[in-house]
């Protein structure tokens, strides 16, 4: 060593230099060595930032201090979108402090109000009501999650269920942020056919009848009206979308979230399957599905009978007279609704003696069923006889007496 002293990081030992020029030279060398030693000691400091001087300002972006940790930014949820969102759709959270790694972000939804759809007791993930959401995409400032819910196929009552009006919680690295409430929309379901134009609960809905039917379609939730979704609900039945008119509630009712609708007259097919409720009527069981126009959201099927016939009616008359010897073929033209389903006109004798026997003929309906032309079957009738005219439809039902017909000379 050229130095008369020995330097270490934790101590420096000096030997007394000689006097004179050589001594002064040696002192300069010692001072320079001391400076070098101090620099060397600084580079050997503990790299754990917690053991360094906490008052020394650090710049986490400075490449000359790679040992300084980058502090975790504050976790915050600033917005959620879209404003209205259905169960099962994608919700985007915007904010800061998220992780770009999916597995580092824990997202939960909580509802402070009751869940929709009369959900069974296992509709929640834990006893506090929080429900975990699946994170689909993640950046430092944005998370996209799937809104959790239970589809109808997984519940005991065959209705989808999930939380409504929830807050969203995000936890990243031990920090947690909670959003404002999210406006969730549930999946509609058909609860009941409240009123039917047949006049009997459960009996077949009558096609074409002016009196409207009323159906209950709950499930959309608190924001059905403000989101405009209430006005987009339609019925899909028999391969046709039927428009619905929302009924404004005026107080407690047995038909909550109700809509009015009319069954098209084209649904009448003349089949003779018996109505399950009313004897003497015929109907077809049809599947009703509530759908939200412009979306993939729909209810489960709800089966209800639809009458095989429209609202059959015919205008009656008191009595008409026809001459047996009159030239040509006299006719009766009837007016009504659904007259195209009548296949036979019957003339049942009411008076005139033993020569008066039953006469029948096939009538000719108009194209829309509002008219029916009946030729008087004089060859089957006798002079002096009075007959009661009735009509028989394709299923053998009679209309009752339409009017009396008397045959003169």
| Percentage of residues in DSSP E strands | 35-45%
Enumerate the spans where pLDDT stays under 50 for 5 or more consecutive residues: 1-70
Q: In this structure, how is the largest beta sheet organized?
A: 7 strands, antiparallel
How many helical stretches? 1
Helix content: under 10%
CATH architecture classification name of the largest domain = Sandwich
Q: Return the CATH class of the largest domain.
A: Mainly Beta
Task: Summarize the helix and strand pattern as letters.
Answer: EEHEEEEEEEEEEEEEEEEEEEEEEEEEE
The end-to-end distance, rounded to whole angstroms, is: 158 Å
Query: Looking across the biggest beta sheet, what order are the strands in?
Result: 3-5-8-7-6-9-10
Keywords:
mainly beta, Immunoglobulin-like, about 400 residues, disordered N terminus
How would you explain this protein's 3D organization?
- Strand 27 (386-393) and strand 28 form a beta hairpin.
- It contains one helix and 28 strands.
- The protein is 6% helix and 36% strand.
- The termini are far apart.
- It has one helix spanning 21-43; strands spanning 6-7, 12-13, 76-81, 84-86, 90-96, 105-111, 130-138, 142-146, 166-172, 175-178, 183-185, 192-195, 213-216, 233-237, 240-242, 245-246, 258-261, 283-292, 302-307, 313-314, 319-323, 331-337, 342-351, 359-361, 364-365, 371-375, 386-393, 398-408.
């Amino acid at each position: 060593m050229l130095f008369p002293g020995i330097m270490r990081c934790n101590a420096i030992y000096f030997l007394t230099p000689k006097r004179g020029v050589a001594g002064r030279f040696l002192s300069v060398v010692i001072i320079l060595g001391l400076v070098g030693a101090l620099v060397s000691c600084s580079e050997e400091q503990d790299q754990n930032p917690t053991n360094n001087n906490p008052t020394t300002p650090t710049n986490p972006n400075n490449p000359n201090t790679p040992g300084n940790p980058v502090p975790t930014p504050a976790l915050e949820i600033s917005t959620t979108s879209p404003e209205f969102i259905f169960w099962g759709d994608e919700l985007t959270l915007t904010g800061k402090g998220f992780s770009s790694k999916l597995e580092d972000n824990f997202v939960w939804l909580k509802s402070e109000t009751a869940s929709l759809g009369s959900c069974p007791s296992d509709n929640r993930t834990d006893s506090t009501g929080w429900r975990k959401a699946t994170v689909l995409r993640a950046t430092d400032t944005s998370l996209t999650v799937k809104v959790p819910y239970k589809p109808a196929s997984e519940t005991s009552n065959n209705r989808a269920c999930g939380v409504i009006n929830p807050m969203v919680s995000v936890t990243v690295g031990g920090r947690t942020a909670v959003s404002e409430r999210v406006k969730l929309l549930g999946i509609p379901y058909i609860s009941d056919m409240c009123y039917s134009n047949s006049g009997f609960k459960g009996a077949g809905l009558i096609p074409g009848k002016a009196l409207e039917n009323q159906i209950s379609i709950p499930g959309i939730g608190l924001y059905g009206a403000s989101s405009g979704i209430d006005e987009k609900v339609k019925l899909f039945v028999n391969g046709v979308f039927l428009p619905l008119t929302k009924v404004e509630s005026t107080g407690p009712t047995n038909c909550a979230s109700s809509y009015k609708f009319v069954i098209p007259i084209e649904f009448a097919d003349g089949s003779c399957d018996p109505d399950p409720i009313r004897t003497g009527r015929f109907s077809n069981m049809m599947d009703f599905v509530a759908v939200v126009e412009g979306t993939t959201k729909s209810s489960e099927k709800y089966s209800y009978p639809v009458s095989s016939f429209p609202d059959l009616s015919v205008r009656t008359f008191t009595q008409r007279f026809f001459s047996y010897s009159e030239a040509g073929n006299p006719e009766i033209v009837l007016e009504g609704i659904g007259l195209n389903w009548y296949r036979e006109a019957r003339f049942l004798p009411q008076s005139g003696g033993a020569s008066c026997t039953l006469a029948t003929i096939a009538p000719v309906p108009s194209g829309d069923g509002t008219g029916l032309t009946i030729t008087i079957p004089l060859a089957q009738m006798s002079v002096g006889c009075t007959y009661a005219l009735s009509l028989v439809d394709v299923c053998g039902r009679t209309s009752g007496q339409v009017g009396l017909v008397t045959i003169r000379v």
